[in-house]
Specification:
single chain, alpha+beta, Aminopeptidase, seven-stranded mixed β-sheet, 7 strands
């Protein structure tokens, strides 16, 4: 499997929504609780500063995606934020790492100075390992900051990376 990362296009909406919605359905990583339909996916993904999809170069299948946008407004608008989703059957194969690396480069190209993650669920060990591997700095932990799908609360970890 060879991964190619490119800009989101409206024709990606169905596959991209399915990948996104699976993460929402799992209820262990994204704060969103609402699912995207195809029209909603087009609106949501095109409203970001940048949305990328990772595709299998051989088959064209979407493997994952990320959204990139300001973490805040005004005087804090130079700080980016991103969310990543990898197809469940393709996790653990380097797709997420390729997406994070691409997002860091793209954020710099768009003029952002920092990347900040506000709510990495502490139980998401693969994400924690990846971010630390890529040089993100752990800022701290917010106890009980994320409500899991089953209703219990998990800590969230904050990270940043200079660009």
């Amino acid at each position: 499997m060879s991964v190619f990362i490119r800009s989101f296009a409206p024709e990606d909406a169905g596959e991209a929504a399915a990948i996104w919605n699976r993460v929402v359905e799992d209820g262990v990583a994204f704060p969103q609780e609402e699912y995207l339909d195809e029209a909603g996916a087009i609106q949501f993904f095109t409203s970001q500063s940048f949305t990328a999809v990772a595709a299998d170069e051989d088959t064209g299948e979407l493997l994952g995606l990320y959204i990139l946008h300001p973490n805040n407004i005004g005087r804090c608008g130079h700080i980016a934020n991103a969310s990543y989703a990898v197809r469940a059957d393709r996790r653990g194969r380097g797709v997420g790492e390729a997406l994070v690396r691409h997002s860091l480069k793209k954020a710099g190209e768009l003029g952002f100075k920092l990347m900040q993650f506000n709510a990495v669920v502490a139980a998401n060990a693969p994400a924690l390992r990846l971010y630390e591997k890529l040089g993100f700095v752990r800022l701290g932990t917010i106890p009980g900051g994320f409500r899991m799908k089953d209703g219990h609360f998990e800590d969230i970890v904050l990270f940043y990376h200079t660009l």
